[in-house]
């Protein structure tokens, strides 16, 4: 069986051919400017196909490619050459979509050699025949041995092979480190093609459209939360207040201490953390904080204001919010993709997390198990979920529920909006979660619709 290898570079095609020759693997590499079209055609013709790229595909292109990952005898294989973090995020997302994803050519050839023999579960193969040193190298990439997964053996002293039954010639895979990466890629790949959809029952679509209708703009935090509310996304007990006396009254109703933060579509608290004050514990301090925040915001907006629009017109007041202690703060950015998919980028929203650029990407709709796997790819995942098992389960379920509800909102309004940002999504000490600030970015859909000429049917 010969593998078609579609490359975006002639150099990669040559390297693929050379690497395949080292392990006697039959491949047909070629450089294609329109590699996505070439991969589709190859898969449609029933030929096993791998795609090898230098430039990482966009998430939208990845979704298009993943449409061809299931339903054939052989899985689709993707290799994006390079060790940087952006490529790693794309490869992780590809694995969640059912694409076998690797970052180097020699591990790619090891994976193709295994798939040529139907060894999709080679990560469950027996390693008893290997030397102790090779077993140690492969151990992190192996799962518990399973019946029918074959066995890994040493070949000519330096390379590793795989066979299904004793006595048959092994398929040569390559050096241990390459084999380990290939086994890792097979283990990470989502196997089941599920007919999933993003939806939430009982949503009042008219209530959402009433909020987001209008020109292209970024909604304020209160308006964004109002648009998200029909989808059941949890928010803290809070109230928008446009005067210091109203803020003091609402703070007394909610119960001290409270958090006071500016409400303005032009000044996001996540960009201006000094425009939010925690632990305000009496009415006098509420009123003083209101005046201080409004004065600071006015000074910052004055430089941005035009003669046609006064800065005060973009200051809505303050949000008075019940204080709650958080175990961790996450940032979430959701954007629509083709085929009804939604890209969900999750990162840490605290200063240390932002500095480390610790983030992961999930493509929804997905199962809760796939979402959990994406969250655990965060380097600081152990810092997120360190509580007792029951509480950790509640935290995971809470985060996954918010992401699924947010995906439903973005999917059902993918024409009207460009994306949604939640920052922070707070994981509270009791295991629950809440969205402290949100921003829905509305597209120009309504403007274009209103500007388009009436159709013959509507004119009649």
Report the structural category.
alpha+beta
CATH fold label of the largest domain: Rossmann fold
Distance between the termini: 61 Å
Global shape: elongated
Overall number of domains: 3
Largest sheet: 7 strands, antiparallel
Number of helices: 17
The radius of gyration computed from the alpha-carbon positions, rounded to a whole number of angstroms, is 27 Å
Strand elements, count? 19
Fraction of helical residues: 25-40%
Mean pLDDT: 90
Low-confidence stretches: none
Q: What is the name of the CATH superfamily of the largest domain? A: Response regulator
Topology, please?
Layout: E1 3-7, H1 10-22, E2 27-31, H2 35-44, E3 49-53, H3 59-66, E4 77-80, H4 85-96, E5 100-102, H5 105-116, H6 132-138, E6 151-155, E7 159-163, E8 171-174, H7 176-188, H8 205-212, E9 217-218, H9 221-228, E10 238-241, H10 244-254, E11 258-263, E12 276-280, H11 283-302, E13 317-322, E14 326-336, E15 342-348, H12 351-356, E16 359-364, H13 368-376, H14 381-384, H15 389-412, E17 417-428, E18 433-435, E19 438-442, H16 445-451, H17 456-459
Parallel strand pairs: 1-2, 1-3, 3-4, 4-5
Antiparallel strand pairs: 6-7, 7-8, 9-19, 10-13, 11-12, 11-13, 14-15, 14-17, 15-16, 17-18, 17-19
3D architecture notes:
This protein is an alpha+beta fold and about 450 residues long. The chain has 3 domains: about 5-190, 3-Layer(aba) Sandwich (Rossmann fold), CATH 3.40.50.2300; about 195-235 and about 325-460, ATP-grasp fold, B domain (D-amino Acid Aminotransferase, Chain A, domain 1), CATH 3.30.470; about 235-325, Dna Ligase, domain 1 (2-Layer Sandwich). It has 17 helices and 19 strands. The chain has helices at about 10-20, 35-45, 60-65, 85-95, 105-115, 130-140, 175-190, 205-210, 220-230, 245-255, 285-300, 350-355, 370-375, 380-385, 390-410, 445-450, 455-460; strands at about 5, 25-30, 50-55, 75-80, 100, 150-155, 160-165, 170-175, 215-220, 240, 260-265, 275-280, 315-320, 325-335, 340-350, 360-365, 415-430, 435, 440. The strands form 4 sheets. Strands 9, 14, 15, 16, 17, 18 and 19 form a 7-stranded antiparallel beta sheet that branches. Strands 2-1-3-4-5 form a 5-stranded parallel beta sheet, sandwiched between helices. Strands 10-13-11-12 form a 4-stranded antiparallel beta sheet, covered by helices on one side. Strand 14 (about 325-335) and strand 15 (about 340-350) form a beta hairpin. Helix 8 (about 205-210) packs antiparallel against helix 9 (about 220-230) and helix 10 (about 245-255) crosses helix 11 (about 285-300). The mean pLDDT is about 90.
């Amino acid at each position: 069986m010969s593998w078609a290898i579609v490359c975006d570079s002639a150099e990669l095609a040559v390297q693929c051919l050379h690497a395949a020759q080292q392990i006697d693997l039959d491949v047909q590499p070629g450089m294609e400017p329109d590699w996505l079209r070439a991969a589709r055609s190859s898969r449609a013709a029933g030929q096993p196909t791998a795609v090898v790229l230098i430039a990482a595909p966009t998430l939208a292109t990845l979704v298009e490619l993943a449409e061809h990952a299931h339903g054939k005898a052989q899985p689709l294989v993707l290799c994006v050459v390079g060790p940087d973090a952006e490529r790693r995020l794309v490869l992780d997302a590809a694995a969640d979509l059912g694409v076998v994803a690797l970052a180097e050519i020699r591990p790619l050839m090891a994976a193709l050699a295994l798939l040529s023999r139907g060894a999709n579960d080679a990560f469950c193969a027996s390693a008893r025949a290997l030397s102790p040193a090779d077993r140690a190298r492969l151990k992190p990439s192996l799962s518990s041995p399973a019946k029918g997964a074959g066995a890994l053996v040493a070949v000519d002293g330096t390379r590793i092979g795989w066979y299904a039954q004793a006595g048959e010639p092994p398929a040569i895979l390559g050096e241990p480190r390459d084999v380990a990466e290939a086994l890792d890629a097979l283990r990470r790949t989502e196997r089941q093609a599920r007919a999933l959809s993003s939806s939430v029952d009982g949503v009042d679509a008219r209530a959402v459209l009433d909020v987001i209708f209008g020109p292209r703009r970024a909604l304020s935090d209160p308006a964004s939360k109002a648009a998200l509310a029909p989808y059941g996304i949890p928010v803290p007990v809070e109230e928008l207040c446009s005067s210091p006396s109203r803020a003091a009254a609402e703070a007394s109703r909610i119960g001290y201490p409270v958090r006071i933060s500016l409400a303005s579509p032009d000044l996001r608290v996540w960009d201006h953390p000094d425009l939010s004050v925690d632990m305000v514990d009496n009415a006098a301090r509420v009123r003083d904080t209101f005046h201080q925040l409004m004065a600071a915001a006015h000074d910052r907006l004055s430089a941005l204001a035009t003669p046609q629009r006064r800065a005060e017109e973009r200051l809505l007041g303050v949000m008075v919010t019940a204080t709650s202690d958080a175990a961790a703060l996450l940032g979430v950015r959701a954007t629509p993709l083709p085929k009804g998919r939604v890209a969900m980028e999750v990162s840490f929203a605290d200063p240390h997390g932002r500095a480390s650029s610790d983030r992961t990407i999930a493509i929804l709709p997905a199962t809760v198990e796939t979402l959990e796997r994406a969250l655990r790819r965060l380097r600081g995942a152990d810092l997120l979920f360190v509580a007792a098992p029951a509480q950790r389960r509640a935290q995971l379920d809470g985060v996954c529920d918010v992401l699924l509800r947010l995906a439903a909102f973005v999917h059902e309004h993918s024409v009207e909006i460009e994306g949604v940002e939640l920052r922070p999504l707070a994981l509270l000490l009791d295991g629950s979660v809440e969205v402290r600030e949100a921003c829905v970015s509305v597209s120009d859909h309504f403007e274009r619709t209103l500007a388009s000429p009436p159709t013959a049917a509507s004119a009649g």
